[in-house]
């Protein structure tokens, strides 16, 4: 663990809730206090007619409320054909109760919020959404240079909650270089295609909880640089699955805690992906994972073939714990619950698997494989050596006791057809078997 100054400000969180956060997260002032002044976009030229461009009225309403107030997008259907950058805000909120339909086609971010502090973006009804209508591109196999829905850049002390992000032409939500943030009660529903990421975060001191993602790429994924990230109650409802990476040169990722992660019909339950990157990933906990019908479960791949090698050694992975994983996998004989292919130049150290009970849905064995990985569990070599070793396999032929785990009641039966419009979901009221959202769901 690298030294970090732990400061606890205003909001006292119990250590159990805090996880790996370094202090309080969220806006510094209340929703009510920001609502003392409102800037309603319909007073700045917006019309809920699904035709008039929301871009300029939203930009004007932001300018009027950016130094203290609430920008309101009332219930109704709005078209957005030009994108906005909302910057230099302080003590400001965006209340999105309407639905924003993408009509423009430029690349970039439909809504980018940057250099802003004490910020809240939310729907008071839980019905606010951005509908990206990505299928209009995807049906023609087009994805590059298309719009992204929402990006926060250098935003501090903030929250985003109770909003649906639907059918992004490219990414749904990115947290880039943000600090002290909370993201919760979110439904992200995208096409069944790679490259349509759900939530990507590279930031500091961020709590992401109670999020559902349907797509076929990143569910909730941590990138570099990141520190003190707590991610919990996540439902990858037919997705690519959660990941750390892909790792670039000079990766700096530490103190990451994922817990209560439910993964259904995804590529993996958790992947760390690298190919010739450098730097480190350390002090990571993956706890209370349930999976069903996924290809991989715990997957470390430092020679990941979907990225071209960056030419360095691979990042140093150390002190990574997998704890209390249950459920079943699609085909354990070709992919067991552990595939840890570590860098031969920088073998993984201190990888710990405890309380893992997973079995296969087809056949009657689990084949795990390890390469250059040290620690405790399955095929990992014991000890603290840094000597590389070739792939070794361990086969398990009996179902472990206690592997069976609850399923969520309404798993997505098949991915969203990328040639047809994807409906706006309702914000779920559970994201993990037996768990209810940590914070009240808007409109419930
Ligand atoms: C390993 O990581 C855990 C979780 O972040 C942390 O509590 C612990 O101190 C780390 N251990 C070492 C030896 O750094
Ligand atoms: C998962 O997706 C299915 C299909 O859209 C939906 O019915 C179900 O409510 C989703 N689960 C949650 C918790 O949102
Ligand atoms: C997706 O929708 C298109 C157009 O509606 C249809 O032709 C196609 O068969 C669908 N694909 C799948 C896999 O359902």
TrEMBL record:
The keyword Iron-sulfur does not apply. GO terms for molecular function: polygalacturonase activity; rhamnogalacturonan alpha-L-rhamnopyranosyl-(1->4)-alpha-D-galactopyranosyluronide lyase activity. The keyword Cell wall biogenesis/degradation applies. Residues 1-19 form the signal peptide. Keywords: Cell wall biogenesis/degradation, Disulfide bond, Glycoprotein, Glycosidase, Hydrolase, Secreted, Signal. Coiled coil: none annotated. GO terms for cellular component: extracellular region. It holds the Pfam family Glyco_hydro_28. It is found in: Secreted. InterPro entries: Glyco_hydro_28 (IPR000743), Pectin_lyas_fold (IPR012334), Pectin_lyase_fold/virulence (IPR011050). One of its GO terms (biological process) is cell wall organization. Belongs to the glycosyl hydrolase 28 family. PANTHER family: PECTIN LYASE SUPERFAMILY PROTEIN-RELATED, PTHR31736. This is Glycoside hydrolase family 28 protein. It comes from Lentithecium fluviatile CBS 122367.
